[in-house]
Amino acid sequence: MRPSLLRSAEKPLRLGGKSILLSPHALLAGSLLTLVIALLFIFSLTQGELPLTLSDVYDQLTHVQASASLSQTLFWQMRLPRSVVAIVAGGVLGAAGAVMQSTTRNGLADPSLLGIKEAACVVVWIELLFFPTLSPLWRPISAIVAGLLVTGIVMLLARGTSSSRFILIGIGISWGLNALLGVILTTLDPKQAQQLMLWMAGSLQQATLDTTQLMLIIALPIFVFLLYSCRASTILQLGDATATSLGINPLPINRLRVIGAVILTALTVSTVGSIGFIGLMAPHLTRRIVSGGQSYLLCGSALVGALLLLLADCVGRLAFAPTQLPAGIIVALLGGPFLFILLWKRATRR
């Protein structure tokens, strides 16, 4: 692994009578990423089929109008939910990818390559088609259960095998589930098929502030737990024997972290559809920016993931305007070559 651009040598930061260890370089990198995300977020609010000026955005955020104007409807029902959910979903997928890669010690362990999102898609599709009266609250629950089931199958089949076989098993299950999705599609009328295909492509157009709020309510506690477990995970990177000698039991920690990553991935699929490769790219890009323990990787991957998905959504809106491409397609156009480069580098090292 190449050295990162910023070294994360930790220094004590005193807060009152206590001190915590922080990396100034990692803090700088995080601040810069946050600034870029904020600027891109503001830019995204102004762009679309009907552009808004910065003055329009400011007026919508600071003034409540008595009657709903076109700009008000456009801002609150389309632009703002879409940009917010891009940041939240991208951050969630980036964090999930970092956890999967560190826990399995496999740089190719992306939730989109292990069948998790396809399993979540299958159950969400079944709910939408055959149980349309069910509360939307059931979607994340059923998606999470399906994701956990597929993850358990992959890890059981790949137990004691190489990392390449682990990925191949996940890809095989993904293909099988994709075939099942194809069978479901053939039974639908054209209108239903078009709606579900748009959802499968990872479109953020149907995002609402309510669904984003639900995602945050579920994702935030899980992210806090994953962040809390980062210290133990950093020690686990030294090997199970070393971790055991230091009083850390690897099995329950790894299982809980994988469960957390699966929940985050399935939650995103149930909210915005199938978006792949964010969990693969974000951790690798983060390692190029800042080095250090698992806490830096987790937080950095969340920021990079948020930036990637928000950028992909902006490109999808503007590249072929007035036609808009789903963000998932733009991410896939980047993620495919990225995966090829990773595989090629692994092959050349042997």
Keywords:
ABC transporter involved in vitamin B12 uptake, BtuC; single chain; 3% strand; 72% helix; disordered N terminus; 14 helices; 350 residues; mainly alpha; two-stranded antiparallel sheet
Short précis:
Helix content is 72%, strand content 3%. It is mainly α and 350 residues long. It has a single domain (83-349), classed as ABC transporter involved in vitamin B12 uptake, BtuC, CATH 1.10.3470.
Percent of sequence in beta strands? under 5%
Number of strands: 2
- Distance separating the two termini: 14 Å
Radius of gyration: 21 Å
CATH class: Mainly Alpha
CATH architecture verdict: Orthogonal Bundle
Instruction: Provide the CATH topology.
Output: ABC transporter involved in vitamin B12 uptake, BtuC
- Name the CATH homologous superfamily: ABC transporter involved in vitamin B12 uptake, BtuC
> Reading side by side through the largest sheet, how are the strands ordered?
1-2
| Shape call | globular
Largest sheet, if any?
A: 2 strands, antiparallel
Number of helices: 14
Number of domains: 1
The structural class is: mainly alpha
- Poorly predicted ranges: 1-8
